[in-house]
Specification:
- By secondary structure, this protein is of the alpha/beta class.
- It has an 8-stranded mixed beta sheet with strand order 3-2-1-4-5-6-7-8, with helices on both faces.
- β5, α6 and β6 form a beta-alpha-beta unit.
- α6 crosses α9.
- The longest helix is centred in the middle third of the chain and has 26 residues.
């Protein structure tokens, strides 16, 4: 039987606006439910409105008084990202917590949506960068805590600087690792920029370990008709307590977003063997996320590719 990891105890979030991407299923839905139960004014940007409504129903089964609402977002579209940014800016409510959790993993063939970015590089990294850029006035107004969900895959591979978009030779897992390395480097650079410029935003990274989440399930929308081939093994080791569960995988991001006294620039994940599962805890930053030179390159190229710029320091 899987070891039970008790949910991280969130502080009272009453009156705080929280924006969570990827919150309509899997570990994102676990996060959403805990945030709503803690009193947050929870905003869930979703691609599929029906799935979003089902998520709200699930959340309210656990937290009947939850304040939760949907907004439309297609994360593989910069125009949709910009539209969400405009919608939330028009609403005018400062954002206290932003958790960038949504992502895709291992489409079997290279996919390039309309914006021209390889699907994983775009969805997991560039479109989140653009969204954060569009939300900067609200994040600054709320002195937001920003949490970016990376992956244990950020501890392998590298950024393919000679072919960022994987046009010459596509490797699905390498592209996934690249997207998460870039996302993490960007987040830490944003934290340093915020401190230097006095923006008031703090940024942390989290990773969920390994668990049988929906990232591994059949995903016809990305061309994967069957679960990834190693999902049954992951499910078995999850049940045996070697790996995490969907519930435990959600906890590091919640700790990163709400733990008292956090000043940004930290990395959270499960505390078990090699970070595969266990209770949420602060972690040693992966070597691939430590280079300030790589972070600067990611910072610059991300703005160039998305067309969304951040203030200078």
């Amino acid at each position: 039987m899987a070891r039970r990891t008790e949910p991280f105890t969130l502080p009272d979030l009453s009156g705080k606006r929280v924006v969570l991407t990827g919150g309509s299923d899997g570990m994102g839905l676990v996060m959403a439910t805990q945030l709503a139960a803690a009193g947050a004014d929870l905003v869930l940007p979703v691609r599929n409105a029906r799935k979003g409504e089902a998520a709200i129903t699930t959340i309210r089964e656990s937290a009947p008084k939850a304040t939760v609402s949907l907004r439309s977002l297609e994360l593989s579209s910069l125009s949709s990202v910009a539209a969400l940014g405009e919608t939330l800016r028009d609403e005018g409510a400062p954002i206290d917590i932003f958790i960038g959790n949504a992502g895709v993993m291992n489409p079997p063939a290279r996919q390039v949506p309309a914006d021209g970015f390889e699907l994983q590089v775009g969805t997991n990294h560039l479109d989140h960068v653009a969204l954060i850029g569009h939300l900067m006035p609200l994040l600054r107004a709320g002195r937001a805590r920003v949490t970016l969900q990376v992956s244990i895959a950020a501890n392998q591979g590298a950024i393919n600087w000679d072919d960022l978009n994987w046009e010459r030779s596509y490797d699905s897992m390498a592209a996934y690792s690249q997207s998460k390395i870039a996302y993490g480097l960007f987040g830490l650079k944003l934290d340093r920029r915020s401190k230097a410029a006095g923006w008031g935003i703090t940024v942390d990274l989290s990773h969920p370990g390994i668990a049988p989440t929906n990232l591994l399930a059949a995903r016809p929308e990305i061309g994967r008709a069957e679960p990834v081939r190693w999902r049954p093994l992951i499910s078995l080791f999850s049940r045996l307590g070697v790996l995490g569960t969907v519930e435990s995988a959600a906890q590091p991001a919640l700790m990163a977003a709400t733990a008292p006294g956090d000043q940004g620039g930290r990395f959270y994940g499960p505390d078990g063997f090699r970070g595969l599962g266990g209770k949420p805890a602060e972690q040693t930053l992966y070597s691939r996320l430590q280079s300030s030179d790589e972070a600067r390159r990611v910072w610059d190229v991300s703005q160039e590719l998305t067309g969304v710029t951040f203030p200078g320091v």
